[in-house]
Design brief:
The complex is a heterodimer.
Chain A: H1 5-12, E1 14-16, E2 23-26, E3 29-33, H2 38-47, E4 57-60, H3 77-93, E5 96-98, H4 108-114, E6 123-126, E7 140-143, H5 146-155, E8 157-160, E9 164-171, H6 180-191, E10 199-204, H7 206-209, H8 213-221, E11 230-232, H9 237-243, H10 252-262, E12 275-280, E13 287-289, E14 297-299, H11 313-326, E15 341-344, H12 352-362, E16 371-374, H13 379-387, H14 390-396, E17 400-401, E18 422-425, E19 440-443, H15 446-455, H16 461-467
Helix pairs in contact in A: 2-5, 6-8, 12-14, 12-15
Chain B: E1 6-9, E2 11-14, H1 21-24, H2 44-47, E3 64-67, H3 79-87, E4 91-94, H4 99-108, E5 111-114, H5 117-129, E6 135-138, E7 143-146, E8 151-154, H6 159-167, H7 171-176, H8 179-187
Parallel strand pairs in B: 2-3, 3-4, 4-5
Antiparallel strand pairs in B: 1-6, 6-7, 7-8
The chains are: A alpha/beta, B alpha/beta.
Bound molecules: iron/sulfur cluster (SF4).
The site of iron/sulfur cluster (SF4) has 14 residues of chain A, from helix 4.
Chain lengths: 468, 194
Amino acid sequence: MGKTLPEKVWDRHLVHSTEGEPELLYIDLHLVHEVTSPQAFDGLRLSGRGVRRPDLTIATEDHNVPTENINRPIADPISAKQIDTLRINTAEFGITNFPMGDPNQGIVHVIGPEQGRTMPGMTIVCGDSHTATHGAFGSIAFGIGTSEVEHVLATQTLPQSRPKWMSVTVDGDLQPGVTAKDVILAILGEIGTSGGIGHIIEYRGSAIQSLSMEGRMTVCNMSIEAGAKAGLIAPDQTTFDYLEGRAQAPQGANWDAAVADWRTLYTDDDAEWDKEVVLNAAQIAPHVSWGTNPGQVASIDTPIPSPSDFDSETAQETVQRALDYMGLEAGQSMRDVSVDTVFIGSCTNSRIEDLRAAATVMEGHQVTVPRVMIVPGSHKVKDQAIEEGLDKIFTAAGADWREPGCSMCLAMNPDKLAPKERAASTSNRNFEGRQGPGGRTHLVSPAVAAATAVKGTFCTPGDLEATS
Amino acid sequence: MKAVEVITGTGVPLKRSDVDTDQIIPAVWLKQVERTGFEIGLFSAWRDQQDFVLNDERYVGANILVAGPAFGVGSSREHAVWAIQQYGFDAVIAPSFSDIFRNNCTKNGLVPVVVPEVVVEAIWAAIEDNPQTSIVVDMRQRKIEVPAANIDERFPMDDATQHRFLNGLDDIALTMTHVDEITSFETNRPAWMR
Ligand code: SF4
């Protein structure tokens, strides 16, 4: 019997396996940031251990860096301390760090691919649950906790139970105006927050293959929101074209050898899946989340559901609590809901194509939403956007153009929502308080976020054209 | 890590599903660089509400959290496990857990107990009826007992994880028993991966 793609990649990394025990996997790339690493380095010191492969370990400062006035000292003493601690730790253990302001700095899941470090067939880990982003290249990439960070630092391996293999196929052509973000939100609406638990998902089908690398990253990024361990997409010419010539990608003969190997990374025709889901691309519309978990999402034209639409009592209570928290009524149309803040950024949607999509919508308009923040994913993205004049479009429209970082995705830096403040956000989590205590988050694509910024209520770019 | 054989105690009914790690420990509590003191952040947003179950005096001192399905979804923060432990819990019983959370539990000695939803509901009923209801989590036999509710239920856990709990073993030391295999794997990695 053949193998699935995730199974092939998994099996290539087996260092040791014993029946009935977790398998020991080799890790090709370990990404480190300031929030989940200090206790791991502390643990190494306490036990007198070193870092086995500093050359396969890369650090950056992203989670709580401020996105304005980055030349001044950081106002929050604890953020400053975490950043200092990362600098001390990486220096002590010989790990490359890209500090705030460095031309290579950015959100950890944005800089790995843009530097060409993320490659097909790899295993990649990071103490951040959106590590699955790197799966867009056909690698197994997953988030780990701080003890596991310590484990990988010390051994470059990780004991892991063998997951199950799940396929999510999206076939057909996407409608104009429907983006990668809408695809993954539609998948989440279909399978829910636990649909992927215990599985690695391979996203397949013609609609997935037609996505750019950045779109594929957006899809894989939110695999964790379905509860999956990871999500990946088979590498193809689009992948190779994206990687060729990047600073850390293989060169010359190594490049040819690598591509030859990458061409073997696909699911065999006779492989078996533990779980299969199929969606029709033509039926996917722009999506907006209405609740407090990413599975509570629907197309912009679907009325907000009522608790009575659900069977179990627990589900009914969960929906009612979500509506109460979000300040929404069952049956309401998302198009009638107005927002206070628009956030375009995060490792889900802060790459150049996302900014281009937002700029295309905003160009020639004025935003009417009180606060509109555009936070590029990295310095490289920022520089590219400036080169293309996107920053001018944003500022001319009245939006706020910031320095790179995670920013309002998790509100560990000064960018936060106030209680009951409502945001259209291109990030990945709409949990209670995720963007600030009491804040209300609606997950959307950059195009919907930009159109909403102009109109003031949830809408798609098509609605702006119709009225202007 | 402390060895765990049998946990005996009482439970708190956390009757919610999809409890995410942002609720278990909101991000504002993550900014420290030390490994202790996270108990004050546990469910801090929910604890501000008077009727939240951890504010119910009848459950003070309970050491087993009994929650709804998909417990620990969301961010990978291990601080969620530390917060639960440092608050005084030794085990969490739920119909399902997120993978990352469950992994983080086993690495820190917090026992994740998976039992069917009907069993969780029966435990909720028993501990709401009598908060002093005794719950036993037996790691040797991988089962839980709630005699008052006639529950005697096995829970799944692989042998290696059980072994680790019973002996309080550190993961890194276990892995380094395979250091020769790691080294030989490294010599065979393709040149383009360096
Ligand atoms: S942008 Fe958000 S989800 Fe992405 S790495 Fe940063 S905090 Fe995590």
